[in-house]
Amino acid sequence: MTEMRDLYPFLYSGDPGSGAGGGLGDVLDDVRRSTVDKANEIVALRRLVLERDGARMASCAERMAEVFRAGGRLFTFGNGGSSTDAQDVAALFLNPGRDARPLPALALTTDVAVVTALSNDVGFEVAFARQLAAFGRPGDIAFGLSTSGNSVNLIRAFEEAMRRGMLTVGMAGYTGGQMAGLEGLDHLFVVPSPSVHRIQEAQTTVFHVLWELIQEAL
Amino acid sequence: MPSAPGQMARLFEKREAPGRGLANAAGEIAATCHSMAIRFHRGGRLFTFGNGGAATDAQHMAVEFVHPVIMGKQALPALSLTGDIATLTGVGAASGFGDVFAHQLRYLAQAGDIALGVSPDGRCDNVLRGFEAARHRGLLTVALLGGDGGAIAPSPAVDHALVVRSDDQRVVKEVHVTMYHVLWELVHVFFERPSVLVPGAGL
């Protein structure tokens, strides 16, 4: 790899030789090393996910493909960064582009009127559960993403989905949190990392691979 | 389903090289973070944008900066230009979808702000036009791209182009997610050392 000093020699002009740490050149070096470390971490984490969950991902994709074959629909949800992942999942299924087959999918996080109404009138913990109560039918899919596994509104949504006979798919991190103890959850993928960021990155791979398997199956 | 284990290994294998490739961009990422931290230090704000799946990345980045997942990190001002459906559809209907990001940057952004656009193939016209509007306003411009970088990578409107060399848009996206997590984290490394953010620090 090219040395930082070769790439950005001008950065070192005010920080000659073995000057005290903390100058711009030193910070840039630290930051560069940190990026390399993180690249290695996520590559290793993906390998671990494949080892631990590869077979279970295949069976989950098979079940989801059966749902779509039977006319079922996908509902996705999550909070914060995971809400954007939920939207990414829905967008990927509904509008995959190129030659891929569009499938019915809706993110429950995009309707700000509904989310704020439920949160204001009842509480944020019912935001996704009430939406599933309105939309969900037996044979649909409830797909929730969390990093902690402890989001109360996700737990409530999965409970509602199970009552309604939906296929339930969850993603979590760390050791799975409360989602790991949720009786009756059909598929749970736990990314075993202490970093929220690495968890989200590996989860992105998991839902992309699920989609790729489903497209190949249909 | 076809042979599950082999198929699964193949799907993960294609992600390995682009994932490792991120390390090769470490120098450019460091320089990008430094430029961004200087803008934040001076009161600049971050505007993010992209289409389709990349629109969700834009929103993810904004929440990352405004509401950090690591306790104690300062909230920094960031706004995704993909979140306001009234404006997106209003501008789209009135002057075409190509203008949706450029319009918002022309009227919301100021010199000293940062424009960060995501285009997995480097060919999104409205993202390029967003960068051009941002350049005109005097913003720092950062592009997360894929494939060969398309028309956006070589554009004079782009200060920092981070390109994931893969034609698989899902693989590109996965590396982008790591990239912007790293950008967020390392911007704070500089931001917390004000001595490297003032004139005379080297840039």
Automatic annotation (TrEMBL), chain B:
<feature type="domain" description="SIS">
    <location>
        <begin position="36"/>
        <end position="193"/>
    </location>
</feature>
<dbReference type="Pfam" id="PF13580">
    <property type="entry name" value="SIS_2"/>
</dbReference>
<dbReference type="InterPro" id="IPR046348">
    <property type="entry name" value="SIS_dom_sf"/>
</dbReference>
<protein>
    <submittedName>
        <fullName>SIS domain-containing protein</fullName>
    </submittedName>
</protein>
<dbReference type="InterPro" id="IPR001347">
    <property type="entry name" value="SIS_dom"/>
</dbReference>
<dbReference type="InterPro" id="IPR035461">
    <property type="entry name" value="GmhA/DiaA"/>
</dbReference>
<dbReference type="InterPro" id="IPR050099">
    <property type="entry name" value="SIS_GmhA/DiaA_subfam"/>
</dbReference>
